[in-house]
What we know:
The chain is α/β, with parallel strands linked by helices. The protein contains three helices and five strands. Strand 1 (3-8), helix 1 (21-33) and strand 2 form a beta-alpha-beta unit.
Amino acid sequence: MELLDLHCHLLPGVDDGPSKLAESLAFARSAIADGTKTIVVTPHVGGAYIQDPLTVGALTKKLQQQLRQHKIPLTVLPGAEFVAQRIPLLSYKQLNAVAQGPAGRRWVL
């Protein structure tokens, strides 16, 4: 069975997830061993963490490159974990950068 993790703090050094790349890679290896093929990274947006969701894509891409370099066959997608009250303060572009789902049916966590 192939699994998809929709809520994972996998980005190194970003929030309450792994503090270093080595920890992210170890978590990724464990996820693959358990059958997970795709993870949506969901760093906290707001408060003491990431302020602009537009930065999540670059961080996700950087992690994906590290996974490839270490031959870890895991796909990571950009997402975010928002406080509900913060969502109306963000632009469509910011929300869409971390939204999941097909066009016309996208959602955020």
